[in-house]
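Q:
My hope is that you can spare some time for a protein that puzzles me. I hope you can help me see how the letters and the tokens relate. Thank you; the sequence and its tokens follow:
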Amino acid sequence: MNEPLHPSTLGEILDRTVHLYRSRFLVFLGIAFIPTGVVLALFVVLFLSFALVGSSGASISPAVVGVVAFLVFGALFVVALPLLIVVTALGTAAMNHAVARLWQDEKITIREAYRIAWQRGWSYIGLFLLEALIVWVAPMAVWIVLVIVSTALAAVGQSTGMGAAGALVALGTFAVVIAMAVYCIWMLLRLCLAFPACVVEQIGATTALRRSISLSRGTKGRIFLLYLLGTALNYLLTLAITIPAFIVIALVPAATNPKFAQTLGAVMVFVVYGAAFAIQALTKPVYGIALMLFYYDQRIRHEGFDIELLMQRAGLVAPAPPQLPAELRPPIAPNDQAAEFIPPQAAEFEQTAEPTHAKSEESL
């Protein structure tokens, strides 16, 4: 960025987020629209499938409806779930690449952002899966086990006439739900900088998770406020879209006709979910930009990244020396010390340098 680098407050990060979003609005919106559009397309397919089955429910037996529902959910699980994982991971990586390039005052396009993300696609997919397993899947597994156990204990309490046992189970279930919610929020705050670290530093998934845990120290409160503001913004935009849509639908002359009640209900459901997906596409770049700015801010605070970047731009930091190929590396001596090794290029230089040195001695 053109402005001086220094540790930033939450207000400064939000201000820069708005500025970057406005400067490349169509690019960020296009990057976020691809995964959101895939989710919306899958939802439309599912919605139309159930609408078709429901419209012809009088002429179709319940067994056929059950088979169709099973096939639809099976196809969603086998095809849609991997597709959603891939497009979400690549979309998140592309968003971070775009923000990182723009932070360095470089231009980026939607196609180029996804092309760069595609080059390390497996790393980003693995990172996304690890984050999902840690933040969401593990609490869900605990919840399923809790539901099974609580149901069994409730059945035992009813059969034995122990009403107090049911109350204790309900209280324990509530406590576990609160604990799982706290766990999800805490782990999300710890791992939210993994994608910026993986994209900028070109590291693996597990290393990126460790880097996120290290970099998020001391800034979880600010990131939590960011998520709260994003949630409030999402809620306000949802109201701003759905309330006028409901008013327009209610003013339709056929809205009071019972024959069209089911159709209008389906339209209202589609409007609500369509608005939710549109708002997600609009607000997703806010999180991507802000988290990348938090990543750079934490590196500036704890690692002196601003000084390192200024030295690189001034040419004061020499590039890392190239690594020799395996066949040119020096052998290891028996005493665990590296033996002296002269690369072929250095040997040729010494051979060519010897006559010149001898000639100079003769001239003296």
